[in-house]
TrEMBL record:
Coiled coil: none
InterPro entries: Rhodanese-like_dom, Rhodanese-like_dom_sf, Thiosulphate_STrfase_CS, TST/MPST-like
Protein name: Sulfurtransferase
Any GO MF annotation of the entry: thiosulfate-cyanide sulfurtransferase activity
Pfam families found in the cross-reference section: Rhodanese (PF00581)
Domain of life: Bacteria
PANTHER family (alphabetical): SULFURTRANSFERASE (PTHR11364:SF27), THIOSULFATE SULFERTANSFERASE (PTHR11364)
Annotated ranges, domain Rhodanese: 13-122, 151-262
Length: 264
C-alpha cells in the first residue's frame, strides 16, 4: 500500500493512478457543479454525499458510513475498481477528500491524499470513467469505534473540528455545542499550511501533545466522521497507525442526552 500522502511529482511518475475530485461543501454548494466548472486534468468526480455516506439521521449522524453496496456502486461508476491506486484531492487542504482515502485504505486498497498546492482547477473537459468493478465488502470492525467506545475513557480520543467548535463557542451545524468529555482538540485543518502537509516532526509533536503514542489505540471524531479521516491519515503519516474512526461523531453524540464538555 502506498503512503497516505503523495505529491504531484509522484502522481506524474505513476501514470496509472486514478485522480479523484472528492470535494464537499457544508454550505449547500453543488460539488458536481464545482467539478464541471473546473478540476485537475483527468480527475474523475466522486460524490461524498452519494457514494461515501448514507442519508443523515439523528440516530446515525450527518454522514453515516455508506453501505458497502452503495460505496462499491459509486466507485465503480467513477471508474475505480478493485486494486486501483487512487489519489484524491479537494479544495480544502484534503480534509474532505480524506474520507474517500481513509475508506479505501480501511478496505486494504491503495489510496492517498494529494499533498501540496493544487494549482488551478481549470480543466472543464468531461472525463468518462473507464469501466470498473469495485466489489462490496464489509467495513472492518477493527477500524471503527462506537459511541460507547468513544466516551468510555479507556483510549485517547481526538476531535478534528476547529478549536472554537471543540470549545463550544461556535456551533452552527449540530444540535449542541461542546465536545465528548475527555477528548483532546487536534484541528485537522491545522495539519496543513498553504496546501501542504506539515513536516513529520511537527505532526508528530501535535499528536504526542494530544496523548497519542505509537502502537497504541486511539479514536478520532469530528462533526460527522468526514474530516476526522484527515487526522487519522495524518497520524498514520506521523507514525501513529491503528487509529479508529467514530463515524457518527459529534452530529450523532450531540443528538443524545450524554454529557457535553466545553472549553479547552
Amino acid at each position: 500500500m502506498i503512503e497516505p500522502f503523495v505529491d504531484a511529482a509522484w502522481v506524474r511518475a505513476n501514470p496509472g493512478v486514478i485522480l479523484a475530485d472528492a470535494r464537499c461543501y457544508l454550505d449547500g454548494r453543488s460539488t458536481r457543479e464545482a467539478y464541471a466548472a473546473g478540476h485537475l486534468p483527468g480527475a474523475v468526480y466522486v460524490d461524498l454525499d452519494g457514494y461515501l455516506a448514507s442519508p443523515a439521521s439523528p440516530a446515525e449522524g450527518r454522514h453515516p458510513l455508506p453501505t458497502p453496496e452503495a460505496f462499491a456502486a459509486g466507485l465503480s461508476a467513477a471508474g475505480i475498481g478493485d486494486g486501483a491506486t487512487v489519489v484524491a484531492y479537494d479544495d480544502a487542504g484534503g480534509v474532505m477528500a480524506a474520507r474517500l482515502v481513509w475508506l479505501l485504505r480501511a478496505l486494504g486498497e491503495s489510496a492517498a491524499l494529494l499533498d501540496g498546492p493544487l494549482g488551478p482547477l481549470d480543466d472543464t473537459a468531461t472525463v468518462v470513467p473507464a469501466p470498473a468493478t469495485f466489489t462490496p465488502r464489509p467495513w472492518p470492525a477493527d477500524r471503527l469505534a462506537s459511541i460507547d467506545e468513544a466516551c468510555a475513557g479507556t483510549v485517547s480520543v481526538i476531535d478534528a473540528r476547529p478549536a472554537d467548535r471543540f470549545r463550544g463557542e461556535n456551533e452552527t451545524v449540530d444540535p449542541r455545542a461542546g465536545h465528548i468529555p475527555g477528548a483532546v482538540s487536534v484541528p485537522c485543518r491545522e495539519n496543513v499550511v498553504d496546501g501542504a502537509l506539515l513536516p513529520r516532526p511537527a505532526l508528530r509533536a501535535r499528536f504526542e501533545k494530544a496523548g497519542l503514542r505509537p502502537g497504541e489505540d486511539f479514536i478520532a471524531y469530528c462533526g460527522s466522521g468526514v474530516t476526522a479521516c484527515h487526522d487519522l491519515l495524518t497520524a498514520e503519516n506521523a507514525g501513529f497507525a491503528g487509529g479508529r474512526l467514530y463515524p457518527g461523531s459529534w452530529s450523532q453524540y450531540a443528538a443524545t442526552d450524554r454529557p457535553a464538555a466545553t472549553g479547552d
